[in-house]
């Protein structure tokens, strides 16, 4: 026996895994007993550690420390913890380790204690109507908390309820829902509610349910249709941009979708395009509108053919059907319309100077209301120059006064007036017409010399030229170019003078032969380019001066006296210097005259009735005061019969010997009222006479009239008092006697 080989010893300290079913209700329940053979029974102390003992969850497992029995003290849940790994220890009574720690694994065995759970309570899916069978719509999904490696978590899906027709099917393993039959029609049923079930144990275990909602998406498989075949509407004439009425349609497709939205077209009955039809996006109705004004008198009713179709074309699978048509009858209601000027503006042409009362046009309007009897009246709404008058019934326009040109009321040669036409309906309607009148230019003015006098040298080719200019009050083409020529009635002038054209408004007068110094009067004939042309003979006063070496006049006094038309620089300078000198002298003279007027007024007022003189006295230092009694022969005024036209006129005794004398007495005035004109003519003749030096003395004005009702000048103070004398008649003698009238009146 001593030579016998080593034998194997069975040891209870090695513990295999222990399985225990979850939800075990008999507790405490002995799981296993561990033992160590290192000591005799009763000499070993056992203990365990780990989850369920001294770690969370606490108190699930326990051990008898003397016997080594391990007990289950609580129900287990595999879904919370499917296994527990513990450590077992063996110590002697003195606390010395007898065995190495060993593992104790407790496996929790699954039971079918959990129902399947769907991921959501309601599943939603969409599929177009008319989808083919087998078209998958959606997938429902459920889970099971039990052990997936057992049948406890083997799920199977099914449809418990989906309505009368089984239009859908479900894959039992995957939960995918697909169409099962053809004929899905949204217009018949737009939504399907399915009740689906999930069951474990391969369909034989615990179950749960959920809802699957399937919506059918619309396609355009239904064309729109009119609710009736005829529609009637009414609209007022002359209305534009207004809605006439609506046509109504019905479409089975989904409201608001492109398959439902209608599009209308006017096929017949509106060749002028007076109507349009649009779609109301909210109601899908067709709204008929007027885009062009309608005229009841032209057409009082319309019959339109309207079609309708969807914006989106029909699906090929939709049943074929003809286009929907409807008849729309529109009646045009008659209303009062305003008069109309068919020609607006009316343009006419009138010659300037047309006499008042001349008819120039008839400007009338027409009333569109031909089915109503109405009367139109006319009035001038705008006539700024008050040139026109208008017949209120016939509309005839006449001139009220002569049409003048130019005028501030003309715009580019046109006169604008406004005519108002009004009917007799209540309330009346009116229209305004524009009358544009072109004032045509008439050649009624002959050209005029710009300056009828001038100075030039008397030698040909050496300053012997003078630039002549002319103006014409007429507008083109009745004005320039002007034609200048010497008077044909005096052909002898052509021996010494010539006129050549300078431009369209000027000509050059030239000396052909050397002429003596002195004044010359040249009759010229001026003609314009109008139709017919206007011509006029005018007198040109030319002063021929002594020529200097440079061709200018040496006689500055003569040039200044005949001012203004010379073209030489020297003449212009002389005229300018003389003008400045005259202004200075006039200012000095005005000061002196003012002082002498005061003295004259005082002397006249204080003159005695006995201080009468049968003579005309000179004041203001014009002749020598009261000592100058010889300047005039008063007998010529007292006895006109002694001085006839054949007699030699009196000689001015204070004039220089070289001064000329008048050629003869002028025509006597016919009445005392012509005294002012008689004096003015004499003054103008004296001022225009170049042979009279500018002596500061009065001139003889010849015979002043006979049989005058006016008293002599000396009778002004002949009355007893100023209050007894009426001096107002002096103001009727002209401006030269108004000063006396102001002093005594």
From TrEMBL:
Cadherin domain boundaries: 12-118, 119-226, 236-341, 342-449, 464-558
Location (main, coarse): membrane
GO MF annotation, one: calcium ion binding
**Annotated region described as Disordered, given as residue ranges:** 648-675
Membrane spanning stretches: 569-591
- Output one GO BP term: calcium-dependent cell-cell adhesion via plasma membrane cell adhesion molecules
Q: How does it sit in the membrane?
A: Single-pass type I membrane protein
Which is one Pfam family of this protein? Cadherin
Instruction: Tell me which UniProt keywords the record has, alphabetically.
Output: Calcium, Cell adhesion, Cell membrane, Cleavage on pair of basic residues, Glycoprotein, Membrane, Metal-binding, Repeat, Signal, Transmembrane, Transmembrane helix
Cell location: Cell membrane
Q: Which Gene3D superfamilies match?
A: Cadherins, TCF3-CBD (Catenin binding domain)
Q: Which SMART domains match?
A: CA
Tell me which GO cellular component terms the UniProt record holds.
adherens junction; catenin complex; cell surface
Q: What does this protein do?
A: Cadherins are calcium-dependent cell adhesion proteins. They preferentially interact with themselves in a homophilic manner in connecting cells; cadherins may thus contribute to the sorting of heterogeneous cell types. M-cadherin is part of the myogenic program and may provide a trigger for terminal muscle differentiation.
Name this polypeptide is given: Cadherin-15
Species, as recorded:
Neopipo cinnamomea
Which lineage?
A: Eukaryota, Metazoa, Chordata, Craniata, Vertebrata
């Amino acid at each position: 026996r001593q030579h016998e080989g080593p034998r194997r010893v069975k040891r209870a300290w090695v513990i295999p895994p222990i399985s225990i079913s979850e939800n075990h209700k008999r507790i405490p329940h002995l799981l296993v007993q561990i033992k160590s053979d290192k000591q005799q029974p009763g000499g070993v102390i056992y203990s365990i550690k780990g989850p369920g003992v001294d770690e969370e969850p606490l108190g699930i497992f326990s051990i008898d420390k003397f016997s080594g029995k391990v007990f289950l003290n609580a129900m287990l849940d595999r879904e919370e913890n499917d296994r527990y790994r513990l450590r077992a220890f063996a110590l002697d009574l003195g606390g010395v380790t007898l065995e190495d720690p060993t593992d104790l694994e407790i496996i929790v065995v699954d039971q079918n204690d959990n129902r399947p759970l769907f991921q959501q309570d309601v599943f939603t899916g969409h599929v177009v109507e008319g989808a083919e069978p087998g078209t998958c719509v959606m997938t429902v999904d459920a889970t099971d908390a039990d052990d997936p490696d057992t049948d406890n978590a083997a799920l199977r899906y099914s449809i418990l309820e989906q309505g009368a027709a089984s239009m859908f099917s479900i894959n039992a393993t995957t939960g995918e829902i697909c169409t099962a039959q053809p004929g899905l029609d949204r217009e018949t049923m737009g939504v399907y509610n399915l009740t689906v079930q999930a069951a474990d144990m391969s369909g034989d275990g615990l179950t749960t349910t959920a809802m699957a909602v399937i919506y059918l998406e619309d396609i355009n498989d239904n064309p729109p249709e009119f609710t009736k075949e005829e529609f009637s509407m009414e609209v007022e004439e002359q209305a534009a941009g207004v809605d006439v009425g609506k046509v109504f349609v019905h479409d089975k497709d989904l409201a608001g979708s492109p398959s439902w939205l209608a599009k209308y077209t006017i096929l017949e009955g509106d060749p002028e395009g007076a109507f349009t039809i649009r779609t109301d996006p909210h109601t899908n109705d067709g709204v008929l509108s007027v885009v062009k004004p309608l005229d009841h008198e032209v057409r009082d009713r319309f019959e339109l053919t309207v079609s309708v179709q969807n914006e989106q074309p029909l699906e090929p699978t939709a049943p074929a059907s003809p286009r929907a048509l409807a008849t729309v009858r529109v009646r045009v209601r008659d209303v009062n319309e305003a008069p109309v000027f068919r020609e607006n503006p009316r343009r006419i042409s009138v010659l300037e100077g047309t006499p008042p009362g001349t008819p120039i046009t008839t400007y009338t309007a027409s009333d569109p209301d031909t089915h109503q009897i109405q009367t139109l009246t006319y009035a001038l709404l705008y006539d700024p120059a008050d040139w026109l008058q208008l017949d209120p019934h016939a509309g005839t326009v006449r001139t009220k006064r002569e049409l003048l040109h130019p005028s501030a009321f003309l715009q580019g040669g046109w006169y604008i007036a406004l005519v108002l036409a009004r009917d007799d309906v209540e309330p009346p309607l009116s229209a305004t017409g524009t009358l544009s009148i072109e004032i045509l230019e008439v050649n009624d003015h002959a050209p005029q010399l710009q300056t009828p006098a001038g100075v030039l040298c008397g030698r040909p080719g050496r300053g012997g030229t003078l630039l002549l200019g002319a103006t014409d009050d007429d507008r083109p083409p009745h004005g320039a170019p002007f034609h200048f020529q010497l008077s044909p009635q005096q052909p002898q002038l052509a021996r010494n003078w010539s006129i050549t054209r300078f431009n369209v408004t000027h000509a050059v007068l030239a000396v052909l032969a050397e002429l003596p110094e002195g004044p010359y009067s040249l009759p010229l004939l001026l003609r314009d380019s109008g139709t017919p042309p206007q011509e006029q003979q005018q007198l040109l006063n030319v002063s021929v001066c002594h020529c200097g070496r440079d061709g200018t006049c040496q006689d500055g006094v003569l040039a200044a006296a005949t001012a203004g038309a010379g073209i030489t620089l020297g003449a212009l300078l002389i005229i300018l210097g003389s003008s400045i000198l005259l202004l200075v002298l006039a200012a000095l003279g005005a000061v002196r005259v003012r002082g002498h007027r005061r003295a004259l007024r005082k002397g006249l007022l204080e003159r005695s009735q006995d201080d009468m003189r049968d003579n005309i006295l000179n004041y203001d230092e014009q002749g020598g005061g009261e000592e100058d009694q010889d300047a005039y022969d008063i007998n010529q005024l007292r006895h006109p019969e002694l001085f006839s036209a054949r007699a030699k006129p009196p000689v001015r005794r204070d004039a220089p010997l070289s001064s000329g004398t008048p050629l003869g007495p002028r025509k006597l005035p016919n009445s005392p009222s012509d005294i002012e004109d008689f004096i003015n003519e004499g003054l103008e003749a004296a001022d225009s006479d170049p042979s009279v030096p500018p002596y500061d003395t009065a001139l003889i004005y010849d015979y002043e009239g006979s049989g005058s009702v006016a008293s002599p000048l000396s009778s002004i103070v002949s009355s007893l008092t100023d209050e007894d004398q009426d001096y107002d008649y002096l103001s009727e003698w002209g401006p030269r006697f108004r000063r006396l009238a102001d002093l005594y009146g």
